[in-house]
Amino acid sequence: MPRLVGTLTTAVIGFTAYGLAVDSPFVWIYVPITIVLAVAVFVIHRSVGLSMTSLWALVAVAIGNLAGGIYLVEGQPLYVKRLLGDIRYDKPFHTVATAIAAWAAYEVIAKWAVGRASRPAIAVASVLVAAGLGALVEIIEFVGSVVIENANVGGYGDTMLDLVVNTAGATAAVILQDHRHHGHNQVPDIEASRGNN
What we know:
Layout: H1 2-22, H2 27-48, H3 52-70, E1 72-73, E2 76-77, E3 82-84, E4 87-88, H4 90-112, H5 119-147, H6 156-183, H7 190-195
Antiparallel strand pairs: 1-2, 3-4
Helix pairs in contact: 1-2, 1-3, 2-3, 3-4, 4-5, 4-6, 5-6
C-alpha cells in the first residue's frame, strides 16, 4: 500500500508542478478531482479490501487522467491530441479507464451483495457505477469549458461518443469479471442461496 500511495502522490505533485510551470488551464480541476477520488477509493478499500491488481490499475488510470487533462501538446491538453486519424487520446483512454472502474466496482459490489443480489444485478450495477463515473468526467469537462476561456474539450458529438465508449469498456470488463468470479464460485447465486435457507 505505501508504494501505491507514494506513486500516486509523486504523480500528483509532479503534474501539479508541471501544470503550474506551463500554465496548463485544467491543473486546478484534475488535481483536486484526483485527490477526492483517491480518498474515496481508500475508504472503499478499507471497507471491502480491493485486490492489488485493481488498486494499481486505478492508480494507472489516475495518472493517465492527470496526463490527459494537464499535459500540453501544442498548447492543448493531451486529451484532444489525435493519435490516429480522428481518434483522440481521450477515446482509448476513456474505454480503458471505465473498464478498470467497472472491474473494481464489480469487486466491491460482489462483496457487499453476497447472498443478497443475483449475478446479473451485480453486473448491471457495476456497469452503471462505471458509466456514471464516466458521465461525471464529462460534467467536469463541461464545467471546465464554461469556466476556462478557450478550453477545447470537444462538442456534443464528442461527449456522446465518450459516453458510448465508456459504456462499451465497462460492459466488456464486467463480462470478463463476471466470468472470472463465476468460474471461481466467488459470487453465489442469490436464488441458490435462498433455496438453502
